Amino acid sequence: MADERDDACGDALLPRLKLIEDQPLETRAEAYAHLHDELREALDAADRQGGR
After folding, report:
1. Angstrom distances, CA of residue 13 to CA of 7, 16, 24, 39, 48
2. C-alpha angle 32-23-38 in degrees, rounded to nearest 5
3. Which among 6, 7, 10, 23 could disulfide-bond with 27, CB atoms 3.0 to 4.6 Å apart, if both were Cys?
4. Given pLDDT bands bounded at 50, 70 and 90, which one contains residue 1?
């Protein structure tokens, strides 16, 4: 589970943000919404597991 969180929140985050920023506005908004959902799920999972 930690590997999934690392993919969404760790070293992969900055390159993903760069890719999103390079997209047209409509696509960018959708990509940010998807990233937001992934990050929220990772945080919720961490809460359920006691932050491990």
Report:
1. 7, 5, 19, 10, 22
2. 20
3. 23
4. very low
- What is the average per-residue pLDDT within 22-28? 95
| Tokens standing for residue 3 | 């590997």
Q: Could you please report the per-residue DSSP string of the chain?
A: -HHHHHHHHSTTHHHHHHHHHTS-HHHHHHHHHHHHHHHHHHHHHHHHTT--
Q: Which residues contact 16 (CB under 8 A, 6 or more apart)?
A: 35
Query: Rounded to an integer, what is the distance from CA 19 to the centroid of its chain?
Result: 13
Q: Judge whether 30 and 11 are in contact, CB under 8 Å.
A: no
